[in-house]
Design brief:
Blueprint: E1 14-15, E2 20-22, E3 27-29, E4 34-35, H1 53-59, H2 63-66, E5 95-96, E6 102-103, H3 110-118, H4 131-135, E7 142-143, H5 151-169, E8 173-181, E9 187-191, E10 195-196, E11 213-219, H6 235-244, E12 247-251, E13 257-264, E14 267-273
């Protein structure tokens, strides 16, 4: 019999001696789903006296999604905003949001975030921050680690992430790829959560700022058999791209990535993206 340690969705292991989970900043009691100590950022939750424009601006962006004005934060021992279905708190400080961005708490660093996600702290440089900006990170700042140099790279990452699950459930998945103006002034790309459709149709999950959407991307699930060409864009796929006035990506059941290039209303083309090169971040 193999002895195993119990763990929870955040990946933290149970300390058999104490019956608690250690997150780095705090201990979590799994029986009550509460921390044993208060949030280290609690002092930052309280607004300052509005004596100048800088403090007034800080008061408008308090950590914990509203500081003391968010009633959930009045319970300083809560876990992930009392909503572990939507959020996780991997270290007891950084909060993982539903769109896979992270909200900084007191003491959090980009190095620590990159080390937590990738195992290599220096990968924080992929997030679009200069060293000076990284030093100024403060509680309440939101960081999106899913950033890529091009829309093609974002599409490759998305395909690697969702294709197998889409094939397994035999449903089409759909998202949008959008532009990000990073703190260092460069243009990057990321993608939204997914919409799950039927076996032969899905409308993509739209990014909240429509003007920043570069393209939509979707899968074709599992091979459908005779009568269906799952390795190419369908007429419905093209119709969606044209109606949204954007480029489109298709991740086929065999793992190919195709791009519908909508340069102008009168000129369109389909090209193959080589997923084997991997995304550049």
């Amino acid at each position: 019999m193999i002895e195993t340690k119990r763990s929870i969705p955040s990946g933290k292991e149970l300390d058999e001696e104490t019956g608690l989970y250690y997150y780095g900043a705090r201990y979590l009691d799994p029986k009550t789903s509460h921390w044993l100590s208060t949030d280290p950022a609690m002092g930052e939750y309280i607004p300052g006296a509005p004596v100048n424009d800088e403090i007034r601006k800080q008061n408008q962006n308090l950590p914990g999604m509203g500081g003391v004005f968010n009633i959930v934060n009045l319970h300083t021992y809560h876990y992930a905003g009392n909503n572990p279905v939507k959020y996780t708190d991997p270290t007891g400080m950084w909060i993982l949001n539903s769109d896979e961005s992270y909200t900084a708490e007191k003491g959090d660093t980009l190095w620590g975030l990159a080390e937590q996600i990738t195992g290599e702290g220096q990968n924080w440089k992929n997030y679009g921050y200069t060293e000076e900006q990284a030093k100024k990170l403060k509680p309440g700042d939101v960081v999106n680690p899913l950033v890529f140099d091009s829309a093609d790279d974002a599409a490759i990452s998305w395909g690697n992430r969702y294709l197998e699950l889409s094939r397994f459930v035999d449903c089409e998945f759909g998202s949008t790829i959008y532009e990000i103006n990073t703190p260092d002034g460069s243009m990057k790309y990321s993608y939204t959560d997914i919409n799950i459709g039927s076996a032969h149709k899905v409308f993509p999950f739209l990014y909240k700022d429509l003007a920043k959407i570069e393209s939509y991307i979707h899968t074709h699930g599992e091979e459908s058999g005779p009568g269906y060409d799952d390795e190419n864009f369908s007429s419905v796929d093209i119709k969606i791209a044209n109606s949204l006035k954007m480029n489109g990506y298709l991740v086929t059941p065999s793992g190919r990535i195709k791009k519908y290039c909508r340069y102008h209303d009168f000129y369109k083309d389909v090209i193959d993206i080589d997923p084997s090169r991997g995304p550049r971040r």
